[in-house]
Amino acid sequence: MTHVTKTAGTTTETVETDAGTARITWHEAKRARLVLAVSHGAGGGIEARDLTALAEVLPAHGVTVARVEQPWRVAGKKLAPAPKTLDTGWRGIWPALARPGLPVISGGRSAGARVACRTATELGAHAVLALGFPLHPPGRPEKSRADELLGSGVPTLVVQGGNDPFGKPDEFPEGTYALVEVPYGDHGFAVPKRADLSQDEAVAVITDAVVRWTGSLG
User: Measuring CA to CA, how many Å separate 188 from each of 85, 163, 183?
Assistant: First the structure.
């Protein structure tokens, strides 16, 4: 059962999955050639600054953006479930993401980026966008999740804050993915007031990089 609500510039639909009810907010491009699906992390929602900025900027470049709220978030829970359950929710919304008949970039921030990497090959994702990939828990570099990133199996772009406690750019292993650094950015791409770039400029680093990358995808 799907419920659809339309407002100015966006369409919101609910999708039933085996992990519960998910929600997709569509920001459609007029001449779309790609769909970019992005989900939130374990501690926030689709109102995150990077997800909001991508939804505002990408449609003008031929990319429809689908911001996805995982079932646990729709249900009002404060804690994300186990990775296996997150993957189940993502699989459940995939048919709706693929419905426009366009190549789908699987993406997300933090925990959402991990889900995208883990399921990309299985779901037939065109590429993966990993925003703030949590390479390891803060202060625990020995607990690396690099295998998830390196195992995505599709073209992958990582956008990482230069001061992210979950993994600074220079901690990332060599691989076939591309990596763009947001100078001074933390895990949520917030930059300190003393930084020599503004918060708006930091967000523009993200959107500019994703515009260039999506433009390069076949």
Answer: 23, 10, 12
